[in-house]
Design a protein that fits this description.
315 residues, alpha+beta, Double Stranded RNA Binding Domain, 3-stranded antiparallel sheet, 24% strand, globular
Length: 315
Amino acid sequence: MQQLARLRDEVGQWRDVKSAIEDALELIATGDESLEAELAAEVESLSRRVRQMETRALFSGKYDRENAIMALHAGAGGTDAQDWAEMLLRMYLRWAERHRFKTEIVDKMPGEEAGIKSATISIMGEYAYGYLLSERGVHRLVRLSPFDAAKRRHTSFCLVEVWPDVQGEIEIDLRDEDLKIETFRAAGAGGQHVQKNATAVRITHIPTGIVVSCQNERSLTQNRESALRVLKARLLDLERQKQEEEWLALRGEHVSAGWGNQIRSYVLHPYHMVKDLRTGYETGNVQAVLDGDLDDFMEAYLRSRVGQGIPDGGR
């Protein structure tokens, strides 16, 4: 029933646009010059709607319409990398705000001096996973370090992971004997209750070695439920990756493991430039990107995927 409702909504949107275009064409046919300003505004509005729908038409993955869970991990670069991870966290929260998506910080580990070592966030909105899939990989920052007294140029790295958050549809059998569940006190601010009681949860999936933690919620039960949700999403994505690797192996393509190569470079010195190394798309407006203006990068990635022939279930 959910799938039927989604399809009806999607068809309804296309029919609405078609009807609006036909109405505009009828007004143009009247030749009434007094309607010129109104028609210009209508054409601009329709162009934006059609472009948005064209982008959504590029989504073909099984879970593209779902919510997303995103994790950020500071890499090489020390304090600079931890600060870079926090900058990226802010960037994605701003992007979600632009799309009116709901966000929730599931887990965040602060850095020793500044920034964060890691963070896990839940982003809830239609096509959240489809959009954010383009962000998975290593992000590289080049800038004059604000933490270096000599003001030397530093390069920092941050790994971004993204998984679909399929509410109520993940059929994964989690056996108690496969789970190691630990509790600990939450780090950072959170009030006396959070600090004095072991409300944070860390779950290790023994067969795969996957470790997830949650300390954002006030109660142990809530944190455990959130951690299990993230674990299921990661196990689902692990299965998806195995299927994709098997399919690519049949095609004879090399599949990189681990961190992999960087996907995007953000340069603040000696010039300003953000460049996606997969698509070649670039912009000199670095501040706009860091403020969440990512749609052009995401669309370029989606368009680059068209025609590669990866099966729907393999995204």
